[in-house]
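Because showing beats explaining, we think one record worth quoting, sequence and backbone structure tokens together, and here it is:
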Amino acid sequence: MKRREHGVNLDDGVSLATPDELRLLFVDCQPKARADLQGWFATDDPAPILFGGQIGSGKTTLLNEIASRCPDVACIRICFDTDPIEPTDAGFTMLLMGQVLQACLRAKIDPDGSGIVLSDFPSIAADSWSAFVDIIATYPSNLKTVRRLREACSVIAEASSLMRNACGVLLDKLASKTGRGPFIIAEGIDKFDPDTSDYFSLRDTLVFLAHRKTLFEVNAVHLFSEKDFRPGIKKLFIGGIKQDVLYKMFQKRLGAYAPLYRKAFPLLSEYSGGNARQALRLLNAYYFQRTRYRKDHTAALALACHQVSGDLLNVPFGKFPVEVFTVVKKDGYIEGSLFSERGTARGANEAIYRNWLFLQDEPALDAPTKWPAAINPLIDQAITWSTPTPLTPEETAVKAWAREHGVSPAGLNIPVNEDGKPAWNDFWREIDASTTSEEDALSIVKLLEQIGAGLFGIERQDRIIVSYRERKNLEAVRDFLVGKANTYAFFPCEEITLQGGEGHEPVTELLVRIADRDPNRIYSVELTGSWTDSQLRDMEHRRDAFDNLQMLWWIQQDALKKYLRFWPQLRQFFRIYRLEEELWRGITVEEIQADIELISDIAEEKDPEGVRRLRSVLTFLQEKGREP
């Protein structure tokens, strides 16, 4: 996305990738981890490493910053989340093979004699290795190529071990040619829940890479198991970011305007829990409330916490061993054995994977099993503990404002049973019921205000999920938003309907439709049908394919509740809103007619898209006005 050299650069926490982004906005949040990683990249030691941290901890940005300094021929980056044609053993093996072949061709190494030949893949029908790599190393832009690649996957499925051996031969050739073994960055493993079948399908490819100089980008939960490919591998963990470093991050993002908002830095950093993305999401929401809605400091903080907790955190916590919350609150750590013991492993790992708990640092040498931890402040502030830590006057004000205005999560109490003990089940129901409020229910005017700053701007690209109860208004709402966008500037809209369920391939269809990645286009995506669990997980893995795109997703409200359980990673890149029943209040026929005239006057083409869209809205409103 386009970044301002001196102004405000806010987004929803996408990783920094381009040279300009890194130059303007990178903050060295983890100096020790950065030094360790630089040492690993620089040494000839072929030992692999696990690089782990929780969602939003800044892993990918740090990798991008370090890798940007490495010569291309020495680095092979494999994105196991976004790039495989299918989440199977064969799909992951094909992805590995494509990236290794691409590195060899860059180094002018002939792949012949490695154990694979072009005739092994008749569906690709390539007449050269270069043409072959062009097809298999990038996600296809049409369904015909998808079918060709899946036919090639069926060949690989019968001999995946041989294909990986061929990759080993090619990597040895590359090492011989360049004078040192290439290092491999295995990205996106952090998007895979270790208890899912998709992660199991990835296992053999990871085992192969574990015998090479490979950096595995993983979630913190992957550090606690010695199964599959991980025994004996060095682990590097990044935890919470210190307060003074978060201040530097806020200052860089706000640029010359930072002094105007410095008052908010202490609580924004505190409520972030030391998590980079949560901090940036809070800053973004706070800034929006102050500048667009002119809320005062206290109200803006409470609403920012409410918006971000609803976007990022999935509640209720029905399967989580609630006693751990109390122990972490009291002791400030979580015992490492909880992540592997049969009775507690699932709940403890889920709490870390979904960012309900934040691991702050590695254990001290004198307590090697005790991981410093804290409850995510956006959950913790929802709980009135029996022996609370004294609140600052500002925290008290924020909680009081939220409580008075019916906004969660601030200001809840733990219900107690007849014995006076916490009734945790009732508490989870209470916090679940309070994760939405009237502040979330948007009229069409408020929705336009909420998304306008990002979706209709050229400096950033935002991704919005809008949930609805009744579909009858959906097309008119969509036409209004896209039509209104064209009163700001020309924004073409590509409408995509993804049908989920058995016999459908919605994720593949979406990836094909966005293959050109036009940052100026609005991709309006409607999810329909009964999506399967595997389809929802596949969408979750592909999260990073949607960064730096402008997207409006439309999902029926009850369906969204199910989907979000599968999307702890995906929801990190989206803001979530729901439309209320009386969404058209405040919109008049005269206003729509005025917008049509405005677009007609400034447009060069005869029948611009904005006019067509708003004519549809005009017809809808006129017919609605005739309803009895």
